[in-house]
Amino acid sequence: MINVKEVEFDEWDCTGEDDAVCPYCGHNNEIILDGEREGEQVETECESCEKTFMYGFKTSVTYDTQPVENYYLEERKRILNRIDRYEIDNEPYTWQKELVKQSNQDLALLDEWMESLIEN
Ligand SMILES: [Zn+2]
After folding, report:
1. pLDDT in tens, 40-87
2. In the Cβ-directed half-sphere of 10, how many Cα atoms lie within 13 Å?
């Protein structure tokens, strides 16, 4: 076995929000993720001391909420705008007709959904 000794480092300092802190020199390295998976350990080189270190990352989840009425109205407006856009031509292409048809179905489903909420 290769003779490798465990390195003491400050785990707390090496947990950060934006950058990957080099465990050797403390430099904040900006990481640009490129297909790396959450939970995997990735090898990188410190921009400052040029030592190789490993980083992993977690993505965090943020929630936003809104009243269901507002969502319904916004969504309705969005679908109607879409229908307007595809109904501009006097002689629409087949795909435009399809999109209008699909959008009208979406609209019907949305209305149905909202009605079921109001009833309850
Ligand atoms: Zn470093």
Report:
1. 999 999 999 999 999 999 888 889 999 999 999 999 999 999 999 888
2. 9
| Tokens 């507002």, residue located | 70
Q: Where are the alpha helices (DSSP H) in the chain?
A: 68-86, 94-119
Cα(37) to centroid of ligand 1, in Å? Answer: 23
Which amino acid would we find at residue 75? E
Strand pairing report for 52-55 and 28-29: unpaired
Exposed, middle or buried, 20 (CB in 10 Å: 0-12/13-18/19+)? Answer: buried
* C-alpha 27 – ligand 1 centre gap (Å): 5
- State the pTM of this model: 0.52
What residue type is assigned to position 40 of the chain? E
